[in-house]
Amino acid sequence: MKKIKILGIIFAALILFVCAGEVSAKDVSFSQLSNFFVKNNVELQNSENYFVVKSQKEFSNIFGIARTMGNTVEQVDFSKYFVVAVVSNATNRETSIKINSVTEKNGNLNIKYSIKRARKLSYTSTPFMAVKISRGNYANITFSKGIFKKSIPFGN
User: Fold this and answer.
1) Among 1, 22, 69, 155, which lies 20 to 30 A Cα-Cα from 124?
2) Which residues have CB under 8 Å from 10's CB, separation 6+?
């Protein structure tokens, strides 16, 4: 009986020790960028492509401004923010990309996203979603959709 109690105490202490070492993921705020488009000269290798953009020059190489008479275009202050984007290949399907959450755990940023494809269109477009995130000391940026994950080293 004493052996069972001792084993129970050891087991409980072990569980407490393991759980105390776990760090929970923290939500990271992000802001969607609008009034931009993906430039035609951007090489999209896969059906879903991922970009981590740290400078205005990089951003301008990928995105153009979709300015009209009635809209304003928010410029990104790259000294405070960086941009992550999920870009689909050109398609003739109505496609929406949504960033569901951005979390940080142990210095790694996780971007969870989803893609919905719908009816066929009479034209093609390059669907994308770009968001700005406050700069931080991140080691990797991981894009996750369901069980699929793609990590990109961040490095400041």
Assistant:
1) 69
2) none
